[in-house]
Amino acid sequence: MSVPNYEAIRIWNRSAAREEIEQVYGDRLVRLLYGSSPGQLIADQVLSRAVFSRLYGSYQSSRASRHKIEPFIRDFKIDMNEFERGPFATFNDFFIRRFRPGVRQFATRANALPAFAEARYFAYDGPTSDRSFQIKGEALDRAQMLGGVEKATRFQGGPVLIARLCPTDYHRFHYPDEGTTISGYRLAGPLHSVNPLALRGRPGILASNERRVSILSTRNFGQLAYVEVGALCVGKIIQTHLEKTPFSRGAEKGYFLFGASTVVLLGETGAWKPSADILAQTEARRETLVRLGEEIASS
User: Fold this and answer.
1) Residue ranges of the domains in the chain?
2) How far from each other are the two terminal CA atoms of the chain, in whole angstroms?
3) Which of 291, 283, 286, 200 is nearest to 21 (CA)?
4) Buried b vs exposed e over 76-110: b needs ≥16 C-beta within 10 Å?
5) What pairs with residue 134 in β-bridges?
6) CB 196 within 8 Å of CB 231
7) What is the arrangement of strands in the sheet containing 237-239, beginning at the earlier edge strand?
8) Which of 8, 35, 95, 154 is deepest in the core (most CB within 10 A)?
């Protein structure tokens, strides 16, 4: 079976102020699965099922996976000086590694919304995305994302931030402001890849994949819909903060086990506006690589 020849994934590295070509983990497999009819059949019938991801996740949490750590660090040039030291007993222990204290700082101005994940961001302002917003050409409305029109009413016409994490990234996600959780719920679905190569070949993934939704009441940004999207080989989305207790700006909310994944943040109309540079890069159909805690929007 031939492997489709997709264009490279180009991102804008904000801190380095330059365009980069993303080094894709599992590039050949993703292109094979989502770029051909036989591949999509395999993805639908086998690989996107929760049982496959959980079995694969069990391996990644076993000591047998430990040998993968050093080659992964070397191949993807991960700067381990930024992270807490091991030793890591399993690949998943390494995968959910934490930053060393002080390596990342959260924006402190009350009206500055900090990056809740270290990731590649798309941003959309309300007036340009009243009914839907585009993800690499895929139309996705808020009702689909949140599981119903009633749930999405408050967020219709509001701003949107989409944070895509790669397998090489820091995989913990955080609260962007202080506040409380109004409600939280899970939406069942398959576990397709969320890589842009997959999104190009398979529209609708983010709206149909397994999702964990939290409706947050925040001090400076009104209500937020915080959506963690599961993905291929992501066996679990772990919540580390108790929803019944208030949260603070920058506090850890949870993490993804092995696999790339996505966090989507939806806001109320006029409550805040994404940063101009991310909006401009989105208009150019290019994601912006942002460090955890940097300002990405303002109220």
Assistant:
1) 1-299
2) 50
3) 286
4) eebeeeeeeeeeeebbbbbbbbebeeebbebbeee
5) 139
6) no
7) 172-174, 252-256, 237-239
8) 95
Element (H, E) at 32: helix 27-34
Structure tokens at 118: 């270290």
Q: What are phi and psi of 219, to 5 degrees?
A: -70, -40
Query: With contact defined as beta carbons under 8 Å apart, do 264 and 227 qualify?
Result: yes
Q: What is the pLDDT at residue 137?
A: 41
Q: Are 22 and 76 in contact (CB under 8 A)?
A: no
Spell out the per-residue pLDDT of the chain, length 299, in tens: 444 555 778 999 999 999 998 877 655 655 555 555 665 666 555 555 556 556 666 778 899 999 999 999 999 899 999 999 889 999 999 999 999 999 999 999 999 999 999 999 999 997 554 344 444 444 457 898 899 999 999 999 999 999 999 888 999 999 999 999 999 999 987 666 666 655 655 556 666 678 899 999 999 999 999 999 886 655 578 999 999 999 999 999 999 987 668 899 999 999 999 999 999 999 998 999 999 999 999 99
CA distance 59 to 258: 10
Which of 293, 256, 261, 294 has its CA nearest to residue 97?
Answer: 256
Token couple for 269: 């109309």
Residue 218 near residue 224, CB atoms below 8 Å:
yes
Helix count and strand count (H, E) for the chain: 10, 17
pTM of this prediction? 0.86
Q: How far is CA 290 from CA 13, 118, 122, in A?
A: 7, 6, 10
